[in-house]
Design a protein that fits this description.
By secondary structure, this protein is an alpha+beta fold. The chain has 2 domains: about 50 residues; about 55 residues, no CATH class. The protein has 3 helices and 3 strands, in the order ααβββα. It starts with a helix and ends in a 10-residue tail after the last helix.
Length: about 120
């Protein structure tokens, strides 16, 4: 479980406790509280699923690295919160063990646009 999900769980628990106290104090707000709780659970489940599946969904790209001046094969982690397609470089063939560069290749336009195969119908 990632740090983000732990914080989300604590925050959700606090909100749930406050909502339950309010629902016992004012009985006619039970339906909005149930709706809010259901929404909170749905968001928590979504982020938990995304966090657990991001480590398994890595893309392997081969491209020319203008910074190392060589063709490299990189294992990239997809992003869900940033404007970029990929969030991090997990492995790179230019380095033997750990990636030790500034990872400027994430901002390259070639990595952000994947050519799609187009079917021609006759």
């Amino acid at each position: 479980m990632g740090k983000f999900n732990i914080v989300l769980s604590i925050f959700g628990g606090l909100i749930l406790a406050v909502l339950l106290l309010i629902s016992f104090a004012i009985p006619y707000v039970v339906l909005p509280i149930i709706i809010a709780f259901g929404s909170l659970v749905a968001v928590f489940v979504y982020f938990l699923k995304e966090d657990s599946s991001l480590s398994r969904r890595a893309a392997i790209k081969t491209f020319y690295c203008p910074f190392r001046k060589m063709n490299v094969e990189a294992k990239l982690r997809p992003s869900i919160f940033t404007y970029r397609t990929y969030d991090d470089v997990l492995k790179c063939s230019a380095f033997k063990d750990k990636v030790r560069c500034r990872k400027r290749c994430l901002d390259m336009p070639e990595l952000n646009s994947d050519p799609q195969t187009v079917a021609v119908l006759h």
